[in-house]
Design goal:
The complex is a heterodimer of chains A (about 170) and B (about 170). Chain A contains six helices and two strands. With about 170 residues, chain A is mainly α. Chain A has one domain: Fumarate Reductase Cytochrome B subunit (Up-down Bundle). Chain A has a two-stranded antiparallel ribbon. In chain A, α1 runs antiparallel to α2 and α2 crosses α4. The relative contact order of chain A is 0.16. Chain B has two domains: about 80 residues; about 60 residues, Winged helix-like DNA-binding domain superfamily/Winged helix DNA-binding domain (Arc Repressor Mutant, subunit A, Orthogonal Bundle). Chain B contains seven helices and no strands. Chain B is elongated, with a radius of gyration of 22 Å. The chains are: A mainly alpha (about 170), B mainly alpha (about 170). The complex binds protoporphyrin IX containing FE (2 copies). The site of one protoporphyrin IX containing FE (HEM) has 22 residues of chain A, from α1, α2, α4 and α5.
Chain lengths: ~170, ~170
Amino acid sequence: MKHIYVWDIFVRCFHWLLVLGFAANALIIDDDSKLHIWVGYCVLALVLARIVWGFVGRGYARFASFPPSVRGAAAQLTDIATQRNHAHVGHSPLGALMIYNLIASLLVLGLSGYLMTTDMFWGTEWTEELHELAAIWTEASVIVHILAALFESKRTRVNLPKAMVTGFKDMPEE
Amino acid sequence: MPINKMSRFPLGLFLLMVVQFFCAVFFIGDVVADYRAMGGLTGGIHFWVEVFATVSLFVTIAFEAKFLLRLLRREAHLQDRLRLASAAVYDVIEAQFDEWALSPAEVDVATFLVKGLDIAEIAHVRGCAEGTVKAHLNAIYRKSGTHSRGELLSVVIDVLLGQEAAGSGTAG
Ligand code: HEM
Ligand code: HEM
């Protein structure tokens, strides 16, 4: 086993604060409340900070270390199809696609929420509609994200959620 | 891994599945909203048609996923280094592997075996320990009723020559 430091403290804090904020807004807090708007802005701020960190951060946090890649995704799907196992130290290619999807969805969610509260778009049908659609899409993506994290942990025998807590991945030696 | 040169990844199918998933998610949202609005299962035929359409869309996606994985497996075995077989030859071999009910991992190992890789090389290509490959090998021998690589190869050659002696599990 190789013990490798993968997720820096910023990425880990970002992730679990995001989980808290998103879950609170999607499941618990009343949609019409002031609190919903404040928590929503916090989520938006977290995502924007993560985007900055993707450029100025180091190592596996950088977007450059997990570029969207059809070829990589295809190779990972082939691994799944043939039950081969090439573990990825940073984000896996499919994981990367999901992360870009989540970040984009959360941006749309936050922006549509913001537009709803502006004078210009207040009461317009489409911002509400967009906010609701973005919320449904993000929730579905999160469900897939969590299932995929569990599936990949089982398949590659690397505990991914634990790595998001401790920052370290235990990679099998080849 | 440079070993997988995916020149023909079915990107179109993959994108279609993503779009279908997108649609399915919103259909579910609709069904749930209808259900809430009705306050129970009071909706008539319209509601159930909606439910049926949504469920069948998910089933379709599942079938497509299965098909996609099959395509990728085939591509992998036709394109890996030490490529041995033409597509037609591979199809015959694969049908025999299917008849033996080999798992995807076992099919992968058996294919490499036929191509002439040794255990260490197979372990490297598959990213696993040699012990794991040996465990797969034992399962392959058991399911095919053979006892060694040589015996397995001769069965495969028999199959290719069309003189299949193999009932499932009792080849030889
Ligand atoms: C984590 C991010 C967010 C999530 C998960 C979220 C989720 C939701 C959901 C599910 C609804 C109910 C939609 C419906 O069924 O009509 C809603 C409504 C609303 N959201 Fe958000 N939201 C988020 C961020 C924001 C932000 C950043 C703002 C504003 C700046 C905002 C403002 C609103 C408003 C004003 C409503 C009320 C719309 C209505 O009831 O007609 N949301 N949100
Ligand atoms: C309990 C539920 C969750 C678990 C177990 C979980 C697990 C994980 C894991 C293991 C990773 C790293 C993936 C990898 O190794 O490549 C990750 C990354 C990520 N997750 Fe989650 N996740 C959860 C919920 C969420 C939610 C609710 C959201 C968003 C609303 C989310 C958004 C993200 C994002 C954006 C990343 C990328 C992290 C980065 O690179 O900064 N996750 N998650």
